[in-house]
Design a protein that fits this description.
The protein is an alpha/beta fold. The chain has 29 helices and 18 strands. Strand 14, helix 23 and strand 15 form a beta-alpha-beta unit. The protein binds adenosine-5'-diphosphate (ADP) and alpha-D-glucopyranose.
């Protein structure tokens, strides 16, 4: 139920009058009600003076705010002036260099019929003021209370309608296989997912899986879902070729003084609409994540462009659901620069998939690229310390709800041990925080149909056919082909999070002649080197696949007996879920989602799903592995019962997607 509003009252640009940080100082009525039941706010969060300071700063900064006034008010030279002035102080000036916006070949292919030539477009784009520019002016009075928002939003101008009204509706997107059974008796809601990766287009870890699977499940729960993603050049050509051009506009960005091209390319699959934000300057690298110098501007641009694109498409969702730091500015933009534009109607949810990554950089740089008002750079929102701003911290303050990917992680991140220095901030916002555990997509992960496997199996045929997958895996990896060996898999980003120092310190004890170890992953050099060393020293029993290979991952889940996930911290973890679904027993550390999804095997009752250990300690990990081996070698019947139980366990998205839907309903009661 996308709310389409087409109001056309244009607001005059006004100098900003302090948009107080909505989250802490002028929280919405609803948020206040929530925080009333939470723990007392930490002193830093309450500080009134901080807000006042911000007010003063904002006032002082008013000339700058004027500079940021809508383009239609500015003449060309004024823009140039801003650029020059910025260049002197710009902490990351290399990005400010004008770059020619070349459209990709495929875009040309699909767009050529519907669209004017690039040069023509540019001319018209110059004339038309960009979406957010208008939003900027309209947003000056950012009012957090819901009622106010709705009223003022009605008045807000919908810029895109003026600049390119027909385009957004014109092109039909490609619809792939669409056999989704929608439960149309449920209340309908519309939601825009905004995040930095999504299978099958681009995936570096579990975020990509969630961005793929959860929207599909939400479609079944009668949600209208659009997933907004960067159009990275590394997206396979197969998908690039199928994208359909939906339009383009130009958008200002921060204090760069430039207008940036924003193209919208669309692809539809199984009822989910994927809208890719196109801009070669930001998204042309081979890997989505490079380094913060590049990534901060990239994701400021992306977050702003995503909201501007929704306005442009005139598709105003009930909920904007953002993921991790890369999209964390979205809730902040929503309540500031976009407050009075149509998208300002939407409520926001920010999901933390991994608190370790927060998008921290010095304040001037983030101010420069985001163009957010000074008022959001207080301690209650983006400000991290005297020097730095923290994009995730700002998003957490401004989001209407915060979720993370398991109940235990929701608790852990409020402690000093796991809080990554945001524990006080999260405790302050705990009233709007909840944990919803991830699931896996049963279409993508199904040993009965998985095209990557040597032999298919289900819970009835697992015992004979899993052996065949094990032998095929051993052959593929050059391991000794022996179905009697205990094969341990590890599929992981090779980073400090994943407990790899524990693993590497016990490998000699694990390789006892009856055990083989298979590692699949890429990441930190030290771990890659260590695992390569072990492979060299243990040919035939240790395999180090230092690569990212989706199909091989599937074969390891199917061919291994056990899967290792000894993480230092783990917000949810999906590999243990995949493993259980493939009848491979997990050996995990009791933290985050691992604790919530794997019940320890109880040698007396026979209950449980896997083997666990609590403290982060190599000896305890070795002990857990040895308990698994003991059961495997001495009581195969019991082992097999656990295999069956794990394959029967519901690790689908069904329950969790319902919880997200409930959350959407809770935020949009009408
Ligand atoms: P994280 O998101 O922290 O990396 P998760 O367990 O949530 O961890 O998700 C990891 C996802 O990435 C799983 O789908 C896993 O199969 C996949 N994966 C990780 N490393 C590789 C790899 N080297 N090759 C293929 N798939 C991988
Ligand atoms: C993160 C976490 C992982 C989680 C995934 C998807 O990358 O490290 O635990 O499963 O996101 O939510």
């Amino acid at each position: 139920m996308a709310r389409k509003k087409a109001s056309s009252v244009k607001k005059k640009p006004t100098t900003k009058k302090v948009a107080a940080p909505a989250a802490e100082t002028a929280a919405s009525v609803e948020e206040k009600a929530i925080s009333a039941v939470t723990e007392p706010a930490p002193a830093e969060e309450k500080k009134e003076p901080a807000a006042k300071e911000t007010v003063t700063a904002e006032k002082k900064a008013s000339p700058a705010a004027e500079k940021a006034a809508p383009a239609e008010e500015k003449k060309e030279p004024a823009v140039k002036e801003t650029v020059t002035a910025e260049k002197k102080t710009d902490p990351a000036p290399e990005k400010a260099a004008p770059a020619e916006e070349k459209k990709k070949t495929t875009a040309k292919k699909t767009a050529s019929k519907a669209e004017p030539a690039e040069s023509k477009k540019r001319t018209s784009a110059k004339k038309a003021s960009s979406v957010e520019e208008k939003a900027v002016s309209a947003a000056a009075k950012a009012a957090p209370a819901e009622g106010k928002k709705r009223t003022s939003a009605k008045k807000a101008a919908s810029v895109e309608e003026k600049s390119a009204p027909a385009v957004a509706e014109a092109a039909p997107a490609v619809e792939e296989v669409s056999a989704v059974s929608v439960m149309s008796n449920l209340p309908r809601r519309s939601v825009a997912f905004i995040g930095s990766e999504c299978h099958p287009f681009v995936k570096t870890g579990g975020l990509g899986d969630v961005m793929y699977a959860l929207p599909r499940e939400l479609v079944r729960l009668n949600c209208d879902v659009r997933v907004i993603l960067p159009r990275y050049a590394c997206i396979p050509q197969k998908y690039q070729d199928q994208m359909v051009y939906r339009g383009e506009f130009y958008m200002d960005l921060g204090k760069t003084g430039r207008n940036y091209y924003v193209g919208i390319m669309e692809y539809v699959c199984d009822g989910v609409v994927y809208d890719f934000i196109d801009n070669q300057e930001f998204f042309s690298s081979g890997n989505p994540y490079l380094n913060l110098v590049d990534d901060i501007p990239k994701y400021c641009f992306f977050s702003k462009a995503a909201l501007a694109a929704l306005n442009y498409l005139n598709w105003i969702p009930d909920i904007v659901h953002c993921h991790d730091w890369q999209a964390a500015l979205v809730p902040v933009y929503l309540r500031t620069l976009f407050q009075d534009s149509p998208i300002g109607h939407a409520r926001s949810i920010l999901t933390i998939h991994n608190l370790r990554f927060q998008g921290i950089y010095n304040i001037p740089t983030i101010q420069y690229w985001s163009g957010l008002p000074d008022s959001v750079f207080g301690m209650g929102a983006l400000k991290e310390n005297y020097v730095d701003a923290n994009m995730l911290k700002g998003g957490l303050a401004y989001a209407d709800r915060i979720t993370t990917v398991s109940g235990t992680y929701a608790y852990e991140i409020q402690t000093a041990e796991y809080g990554e220095h945001l524990e006080n901030h999260l405790r302050y916002h705990s009233g709007k925080l909840r944990g919803i555990v991830n699931g896996i997509d049963y279409g993508m992960w199904n040993p009965e149909t998985d095209p990557a496997l040597a032999v298919h199996y289900n819970r009835d045929t697992v015992f004979e056919h899993k052996m065949e997958n094990k032998l095929a895996l051993q052959k593929e990896l050059g391991l000794e082909e022996d179905a009697g060996k205990f094969v341990i898999g590890l599929i992981s980003r090779l980073t400090n999070q994943k407990g790899l120092d524990l693993v590497s310190s016990i490998i000699p004890q694990v390789l006892d002649g009856n055990t083989q170890v298979v590692v699949l992953g890429t990441g930190d050099q030290q771990y890659e080197d260590t695992f390569r060393y072990y492979e060299g020293a243990n040919r035939g029993t240790f395999s180090a696949c230092i690569q990212y290979d989706e199909a091989r991952a599937h074969r390891i889940y199917a061919g291994a007996d056990a899967l290792l996930v000894p993480s230092r911290f783990e917000p949810c973890g999906l590999t243990q879920l995949n493993a259980m679904h493939y009848g491979t027993l997990p050996i995990v550390r009791e933290t985050g989602g691992l604790k919530d999804t794997v019940q320890p095997y109880n040698v007396f009752t026979g209950d449980g799903n896997g083997f666990t250990f609590d403290r982060y300690d190599a000896g305890l990990l070795l002990d857990a592995i040895n308990r698994a081996k003991t059961l495997y070698f001495t009581n195969r019947d019991q082992w097999n019962q656990v295999v069956r139980r794990d394959m029967e366990k519901d690790v689908s998205w069904e329950n969790s997607a319902k919880q997200y839907k409930d959350l959407y309903l809770e935020l949009t009661q009408w």
